[in-house]
Design brief:
5-stranded antiparallel sheet, alpha+beta, two-stranded antiparallel sheet
Length: 149
């Protein structure tokens, strides 16, 4: 396990162009044994300044990387439609299992099925639908899988 940890911390990160160990400690990890010298370290302030500068650089690179990822993720994102209790919605059949598709009528093969009633708003991303009124069967569905009727 120690070897794997060493390899991970010594690997050059693509965004930072440096190893994680160097970012945290300001130097590459020791592979062999070095004898430590006793005495005062006169370069301590210089080292601290260098480390703070390196952390600022890495933070700027990571923020830029996050912004780039967000830009790519938001490229195809659209505003979610708001649903209310008692709204009628259709369910998208795209993600239904093929086995289920074989067993049920041909109507299920359509892109959207049935108007179902929204019984409860779980969150802005999920709603509870009432599938069978007489049996009180409910299903929690992501709002990306439904459209208003």
């Amino acid at each position: 396990m120690a070897t794997a940890e060493f390899a991970f911390n010594n690997k050059i990160h693509t965004a930072m162009k440096s190893s994680l160990f160097k970012v945290n400690y300001g130097r590459e990890p020791r592979i062999g044994f070095n004898i430590r010298k006793k005495g005062e370290n006169v370069k301590a302030e210089e080292f601290v300044k260098k480390m703070k500068d390196r952390h600022k650089e890495v933070k700027a690179v990571l923020v830029k990387s996050q912004e780039e990822m967000k830009k790519q993720a938001d490229r195809n994102r659209k505003e979610a439609e708001e649903y209310g209790v008692e709204d009628k919605v259709l369910i998208n059949t795209k993600d239904f299992l093929m086995e289920l598709m074989k067993r049920v009528t041909k109507k299920l093969i359509e892109k959207y099925i049935e108007p179902y009633v929204v019984k409860k708003i779980i969150s802005e991303n999920a709603v509870e639908l009432e599938l069978l009124v007489s049996l009180r069967i409910h299903l929690v569905v992501n709002v990306r899988r439904i459209v208003k009727y």
